[in-house]
Amino acid sequence: MSVMPAGRSRESPAAAAQRIETRVRERITPSPEELARVARVRADLVRAVQLAAEARKSPLTRALVAGSAARGTFLRDRLDIDFFLLFPPELPRAQLETEGLALAEAILTKPERKYAEHPYLRGTFQGYTVDVVPGYAIGDPSKPLTAVDRTPFHDEHLRAHQTPANVAEVRLAKLFLRSLGIYGSEARTEGFSGYLVELVLLQFGTLHALLEAARSWRLPVRLCPPGKEPPRLPPDVALILPDAVDPNRNVASALSPRNLALFILGAAAYLEHPSEEWFELPKPRHLSRADALERVARRATHVSVVEMPRPALVDDTLYPQLRKAERAIAEEAARAGFEVVGSACAAGSAALLVLVEVAHGRLSAVRVQDGPPAGLDRVGSFLEKWTAPGAPVSQGPYVREDGRLGIEVRRTERDLEAVLAVAIPRLSLGKDISPAAAERTQIRGLADQPESLELDRALVDLLGKRLPWLGPR
Amino acid sequence: MSVMPAGRSRESPAAAAQRIETRVRERITPSPEELARVARVRADLVRAVQLAAEARKSPLTRALVAGSAARGTFLRDRLDIDFFLLFPPELPRAQLETEGLALAEAILTKPERKYAEHPYLRGTFQGYTVDVVPGYAIGDPSKPLTAVDRTPFHDEHLRAHQTPANVAEVRLAKLFLRSLGIYGSEARTEGFSGYLVELVLLQFGTLHALLEAARSWRLPVRLCPPGKEPPRLPPDVALILPDAVDPNRNVASALSPRNLALFILGAAAYLEHPSEEWFELPKPRHLSRADALERVARRATHVSVVEMPRPALVDDTLYPQLRKAERAIAEEAARAGFEVVGSACAAGSAALLVLVEVAHGRLSAVRVQDGPPAGLDRVGSFLEKWTAPGAPVSQGPYVREDGRLGIEVRRTERDLEAVLAVAIPRLSLGKDISPAAAERTQIRGLADQPESLELDRALVDLLGKRLPWLGPR
């Protein structure tokens, strides 16, 4: 990790880090006026919704701003207010949505309907972007009725333990993670959720202490006493941290192994070569088709692009399916005999793209296939099949060194695009992707794929892989 | 197994087989005159060598013709007489050779020195080719001093059990095996030794009964009661049959799995479609370079030829080394990233050839390499190595999905010939092949390889693989 200049040559990395962290912390701390303004908006939101609830005799139990706007842990350039409307658990789900919608519309400007697990509304209130999220006012956070019902308990737990110094470190940590592109638990990012950051900072106190610990973490990382892991963990879990208000839940389930590894490596790299760049917005990365074609020519590989229509899904539902489709397509290429070098995917507003890079875009015309060992009953039908007139045989049948039969089959489809065109209709790509894919899928070599923003994004993932702090190559 | 015409349509395969076997058996049975002539030669040989031994006061204990010429199990067109000269076990090895040589020279015309495990002399006597083999007159066949000392015991055992009918079946079986190219236990053939054929025929009585049994054999085949296998069998043993005179020895150790499997498949094919072709000399097979290049073009593959000088070794010593060299070279190609379709080898009088067929003769310019998982100490040196100026990096370092580091390395050598030229000097090819290989090895694409008989033979092994009874393709 010796690629970044060490900055001031007399200063130790630890001293430099302290100086940098202090400066950045100051820069991002909201002013007292700012905090007062947010507090006023919180109070106004609650009052406004209570009036609206009375007006339509809504069974609203409680309204509160939770999340970073409630605790001051927000980043100044990215303040969204999460406003929770809690209803009695007895209220049917359909009514919960109707009531939430009606109240949100009563108080928000230009409300827009959104979906996560759960419909919510986004609009503006006194100039701030506000997400109005309906939920149930439950008594036991380990038995939520919707995915958001635990949030008030999270808020309560954090407020009870956070100090102003800790809140400042949470902001610093969010900035560090955002710079690495791993802040946010949405399916597209697979990074650290805000609540996860706050819990981890309660445990370690400061970002610096967290980084010192993280530099020697090994996957999977357990931030809980051994034996206290939440049950039924998926096999590729990266970080295990039980929810403070529901110990059976892993707060870090959205964090991918790749992103936790990036954090571990980033921690080590930052501690050796601290600089303010580690707290800046990540540079948007893209790679034009022309530059990509040049790279592919230098790499002497071949890139195919599968383009499918985008189904009407929100990103959080779409991305896991798109990644599944990417895996299925890359695995199919490998199964067909291609040497897969890499793959990538991207979603645009209308199209989904999956890119596959292979060592050779065209297979040899022969495929070696094993037959049964001599003496088995299957030998007869194997020989009959492969000596029949018109059998697509290049060589054989013959006996291999180990005594099994073998045959060399002539391939009919040899180009990656042709092989994928045949295979994709029978692949399981993702619940909502497969049916559409069969009909309106386009498969082309990279040179024939029309330029688009999503292509540029997928190309940088495929051909621009590099630890972000090393800079572009 | 339905590719051969069934011959006479009214006749059952079993009846046809019986008719064919009877006719072939008659055709190859030596005439009484022939047998009498061989018997006379046997007696003359013994008398001649006894006179020579007296003349030079040689410590000869016993002289006998053993092998097929002694028992009448020879093939008429291939009668070599094996003449054994047995000396006292006390005689030093060097003297054994001197005495054997002297006596052979006294009785043979144009004697020529040969080596197997053991030096012997080949010459003619009364118009017959005779191999004069010195050995020790031992008392216990399980404790031989040289590889040939068991032979008189084999002879005795077979004579004690064989009937004239059985002898006729041995000849028929040898013809069947020779037609398949799997008769002979020399290293080049890896087939059935004469002694193995005779022992197996003692057990099964007739070739037909043997074939009926063999059609459902599965490798490895045990022709001895379970638990009675000879100890210390190599892992890839095909057939286990203890020596009748030394049960710790496997008579079938020279038989390769491939050749036993070919016998099993041939047995089934013959019994379904018997014909006299199964007892004819195998057609010599070769494939010209021009035809091979045409096939390679159709297969869309690439063939490289490694040519090395032939060391001064007899075939039995050379072939195992040559096959080891073939394996080592093919494995190296695979390790370097080539998709190996097949390989072959051949020895000429001056040159050894190893052929490797790959799906693509030129690799992509990138090679994906795994790095350590984040958090290990090795991460630092991995990153240092691959971010150093001039490191041959195509892409990376980056974090893979599973949290390990990865790097894509630029390849320097990409053609199979270039890769093998770099690798071969450090490969272990075979005890007597390696040193010569490093200096005078030529590696060329098939189109650039000069034509030769051994090339044609290797090419048919590489590109003409097919069960022999199916005919050429």
Give the % helix of chain A.
25-40%
**Strand order across the biggest sheet of chain A?**
1-2-5-4-3
Largest sheet of chain A: 5 strands, mixed
In CATH, the topology of the largest domain in chain A is named Poly(a)-polymerase, middle domain
Contiguous runs where pLDDT drops below 50 for at least 5 residues of chain A? none
Task: Please report the total strand number of chain A as a whole number.
Answer: 16
What count of domains describes the coordinates of chain A?
4
Q: Which CATH top level class of the largest domain in chain A fits?
A: Mainly Alpha
Instruction: Report the oligomer.
Output: homodimer
CATH architecture label of the largest domain in chain A: Orthogonal Bundle
Identify the overall geometry of chain A. Answer: globular
Largest interface: A-B, 67 and 67 residues
Distance between the termini of chain A: 16 Å
CATH superfamily of the largest domain in chain A: CCA tRNA nucleotidyltransferase, domain 2
Q: How many individual helices of chain A?
A: 15
Beta-strand proportion of chain A = 15-25%
Q: What's the average pLDDT of chain A?
A: 92
Structural class per helix/strand content of chain A?
Answer: alpha+beta
Task: Provide the gyration radius of chain A in Å.
Answer: 28 Å
